[in-house]
């Protein structure tokens, strides 16, 4: 794929000229194609179509470098400056896949933060089946019970990437990792981490069937998170922002650890707590 | 103070009655007092007045329990249900300090998230002078260089509270810890942690004068964050979300540590990275 892309070297200037003279640039936010794309900013339409919008130069470049990862490309030719991105855009277009040129203003309405970088992509969501998933030694995963805040969810994905954690189980009614706020916080980790959606009960049945250890966290647990040996593979289970893990959920864990608190605070932000335990769990592995 | 508050026991019903019949309830968002209070949602007016608005039942209760911490109280009597809060409101009113009764709708315009809890307070901002600050053995502080995101800032304050870190240095042009988003993420830690504002240069001059060790973080540092002994007192210095610490800033540190990354990601969220190093630094202390 990388080779194929580099067969289409062209200078930015040439692309811009091409864009200006032979391609239509959509300048109205009310264009039906744009209106359709904008619906992907809302969860119901993302769920109905199985698609999502990603933005940010680094993230879109990473997606374009993964075969089959982008299914539509939206470029503001007056705004996109990156030579590398233009080369990837050209390679993408050669595949005959759909793309649009739009004005800076139109791109802005498809973008949460990085409109000034000039490119947005539509990607198919990727979800894996719980039933078929198997873990190997060295694999760590995080399971989030009913996480509510997409920013926390995205930050946890980013931490998964940094720690080499394979991916996330999203249990019960959770925020959407393809939410623009989650995507922004994930900093591209959505493209490299794996995702599984399940009910808590199905997750427990699956982990029991395969004897995968699950480590929960609770401020009431007697076991200090630094005073245990972490198994591998393992799944770190975190409770929701509001309620943490219920007694029943803790009972389904093989081990429940606590992170000590010293001040007035009785809890940590869930993304912070996840990182603190993850970094402890993986520390025995080689870096 | 606690004793004084409990001299004014009254039942919620009585308070509500009082509110309905003898106190004016402001029902218009355009009331000049309300318009004035709303300006505190913006940073320039917060800086001009040195005040801030806090919301959330737990946070306001905590503020009311600290002598001299609240300088104005705004209550929606039809919404506030907490008996404890009503007792504190009554004790507060007995001090002759200013308060307003407002409708649910008016409270909503002063509130980011917790309007349904029925109470908002105006507090004076508290900042300490760098020059007069001294650290003792066991003290940890966090210094944030030009942090931009108020959510990250608030989350770091919350982590400071959980780890017993004394407070924050906000260096150079930083987000405002009294921003409603920061306050919401801090979960009340704003009321218990200490705050110092300074330029990076003044901070460095001060730490050199007093020989306080500063520990920086950088993904390029050769020293693994788990393979060092952390001094005490100490200050953990974190770079901005975008740029991390510059070479000059790292050179001003006594030690620079790195948090290893395994995936595609080249950095962690700043609040996550702060927590990972803080929990490592304090782990040798007794809990």
UniProtKB/TrEMBL annotation, chains A, B:
Pfam families: MRM3-like_sub_bind, SpoU_methylase. Signal peptide: none annotated. SUPFAM superfamilies: alpha/beta knot (SSF75217), L30e-like (SSF55315). GO terms for biological process: methylation; RNA processing. GO terms for cellular component: cytoplasm. The keyword Methyltransferase applies. Keywords: Methyltransferase, Transferase. PANTHER family: RRNA METHYLTRANSFERASE 3, RRNA METHYLTRANSFERASE 3, MITOCHONDRIAL. Residues 53-129 form the RNA 2-O ribose methyltransferase substrate binding domain. InterPro entries: Alpha/beta_knot_MTases, MRM3-like_sub_bind, Ribosomal_eL30-like_sf, rRNA_Methyltransferase, SpoU_MeTrfase, SpoU_subst-bd, tRNA_m1G_MTases_N. Gene3D superfamilies: 3.30.1330.30, 3.40.1280.10. It comes from the Bacteria. Belongs to the class IV-like SAM-binding methyltransferase superfamily. RNA methyltransferase TrmH family. The lineage of its organism: Bacteria, Bacillati, Chloroflexota, Ktedonobacteria, Ktedonobacterales. This is rRNA methyltransferase. The keyword GTP-binding does not apply.
């Amino acid at each position: 794929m990388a080779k194929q892309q580099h067969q289409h070297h062209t200078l930015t200037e040439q692309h811009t000229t091409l864009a200006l003279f032979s391609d239509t640039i959509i300048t109205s936010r009310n264009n039906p194609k744009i209106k359709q794309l904008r619906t992907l900013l809302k969860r119901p339409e993302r769920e109905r179509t199985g698609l999502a919008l990603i933005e940010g130069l680094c993230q879109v470049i990473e997606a374009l470098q993964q075969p089959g990862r982008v299914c539509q490309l939206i470029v503001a030719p007056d705004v996109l400056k990156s030579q590398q991105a233009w080369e990837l855009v050209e390679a993408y277009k050669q595949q005959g896949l759909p793309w649009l040129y739009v004005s800076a203003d139109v791109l802005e309405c498809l973008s949460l933060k990085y409109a000034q970088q000039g490119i947005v992509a539509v990607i198919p969501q990727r979800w894996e089946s719980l039933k078929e998933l198997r873990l190997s030694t060295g694999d760590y995963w995080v399971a989030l019970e009913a996480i509510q805040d997409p920013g926390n969810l995205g930050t946890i994905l980013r931490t998964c990437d940094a720690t080499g954690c394979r991916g996330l189980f999203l249990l019960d009614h959770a925020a959407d990792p393809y939410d623009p706020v989650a995507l922004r916080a994930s900093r591209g980790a959505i493209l490299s981490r794996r995702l599984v959606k399940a009910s808590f009960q199905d997750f427990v049945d699956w982990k029991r069937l395969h004897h995968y250890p699950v480590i929960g966290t609770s401020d009431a647990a007697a076991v200090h998170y630094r005073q245990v040996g972490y198994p591998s593979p393992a799944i770190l289970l975190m409770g929701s922002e509001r309620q943490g893990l219920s007694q029943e959920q803790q009972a389904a864990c093989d081990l429940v650890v606590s992170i000590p608190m010293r001040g007035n605070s009785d809890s940590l932000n869930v993304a912070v707590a996840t990182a603190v335990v993850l970094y402890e769990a993986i520390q025995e592995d080689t870096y």
